[in-house]
Design goal:
This protein is mainly α. It contains 17 helices and 12 strands.
Amino acid sequence: MDPRGIDPHCIDPHWAELSALVSRAEQNRIDMARLQAQRAELFAEALQLVALRVAQRRAAKGNREFGDTIPLREVIAELACALRVGERTIASWLGDGDALVRTYPATLEALREGRIDERHASAIIDGGMPLDDAHRGQYEELVLPLAETATAPELRESARVIAARLQPEMVEERQRAALAQRQVKTYGLEDGLSRLLLDGPDALIQAAFERLTDMARALDGEGPVAFDADDDVEDGAEDAVSADPDADADGDGEPADERTLDQRRADIMLDMLLCGAPAAHGEEGALGAIRATVQVTIPILTLAGIDDQPAILAGCGPIDADTARTLAASAPCWERVMVHPVTEEPLRLDTYRPSKKLRRLLDARDRQCRWPGCGRLARRSEADHTIPFSEGGPTCAGNLAILCKRHHRLKHASPWQVVQLGAGVLEFISPTRRRYRNNAPPVDEARTARPWARLLATPYDSTDPAAF
């Protein structure tokens, strides 16, 4: 029996070698995390040494020409030379080590025990950086359990959301300061290639990227992604589709456009910047009519102007309440999602349009491919029957989950299993009998929210106009 409780005698012999290899990899990860915890403590001690040297320098009242930064620079330079890494890396290790030792002791202990790794610890530190000291203890309590089940990129996004909900006012302040830094830059690359870099608001950049993607797909005959209840890919049906999700073929079996999706995006973007419209790519009216679709989850109290809890822009993270209300005011259609009052799992969705309700509910619940570690947006993924439809599985939210094309195929072409545990929680069982829990984003984010108490405490004024 290995430390995870997996009995090697119960594993199919075909998977025994893989299971043994995975066990060794897990132990290697634990050993590395323990060393990373030791390094964090070592570099926290180095900062203490810097503070001591600064105090000694001030007490000696020596040459003050260069200020108090010399002791820090001396330590950084010495460590960088000894470890043969850059000084910026040393500075980063110093900051992270000090944060773990002084501010996030439970995270340091989890790192020492191998329950998380260095990237998870870094995500926790970065996510909590804008918080006041009074909120960081609660923030660590909420985010650390997620770190033990999520990948580092998933944790980084969840940490930003949790921090924003603990201290909503910081979202608007930070976004106002960040917006003042918006700019366009160019960088010269190799072989006659240059890079155009645009920094702008999350909602606008995400919308621009989605519109470029829809235009690029339309050039190849695919068009913007849309789903109906009958469009759900049935179990195993994807095996007949090309392995390249971005490649389509015309009726003769030849690709309609030999450029990759990235190349088409780049060409259309330059075309629009130079001409004001995609004039060089087919009929202007066809591509120009395509508009972007972005998903913004707005708490109802925020929408009504009662609260300022941040909204969540799918694929980006929290956005301030004023921006969310502006987007809601200009949206041609709202989709109202009924959620569980405790877990915030989406339970029901209604809208003015009667079709596509179930697909919208799944998109609202899952937001992206639910396979552990995958971040492909829900609107570019597929609805998978957990229990195959051919085996009696119903077409309902409790038996459907969003999987991208790649992982949808893997689920049906390999012994991987998926179990619905309820409340939006999935459990993935690998061929080596390991189990990986995956919570829907609203289930994780609900840990910080208590919206119903604020709603009941808010006096109702029938003469108060809408806030949008």
